[in-house]
Amino acid sequence: MNGRSVRLWQDKWFLSIPAGKLTPIGDVRVSRNMRVSTMISETSGNWDIDAIKPLISVEDCDAIQDTCIGDILRDDRIVWPANRNGKYSVEFVEHLLLSCPWVEPIWFGDPLNYRVNRTNVSNLPAWVSSFFGSNLGSKEELARILSYVAFTCWHIWKARCNFVFDNKSISPNQVIMSIFTSVNGFLGASRTPEGRSQRVQTALVPPACWSPPSPFFMKLNVDAS
What we know:
Low-confidence stretches: 199-205
Strand content: under 5%
Helix content: 25-40%
Number of strands: 0
Order of helices and strands: HHHHHHH
Distance between the termini: 53 Å
């Protein structure tokens, strides 16, 4: 990306902040046609944002610094982001679900109150497996925690897709409420009124089998759909 066709203040050019674009602090007039390329050093190929630092928040500044520039000799285009070595891999998933600045308040704000430590996240499967080796209490508590982990990842991905494809802004508070609703619905549907898992209960019930109706009765099966 060389940034020559992307407007710095108008276009949605990165996903690490909810708005998708920079927002100047206070009542500051900025050039609508200022290009992202003006923030890339021609000599080093790295970000050079000293000129706009006083105009943006710390979160926006960090988001820019965390954004990979790529090949500055190529024109701007929409791609699946690559790693620093230029190879495409699932490491983007770890960044999207755990490391983006806009997802941190979601992990910390939902009932897990989880603060993501980026240095301890090597890959997503290993991170999820780490919960099984932790002393989290009973099996029911572990199931509750893993339910929140699963639905948090899913709703983060859903919010990202709505942002990219439907141009909908991302609201961490709304995502948290959606996670809470999904987990409560899932756990409620997974348990009987006595609090036992449906999986355990159905295992004790013999499988249903067909039997003919009583004499002088006729049985008629219909498709209600």
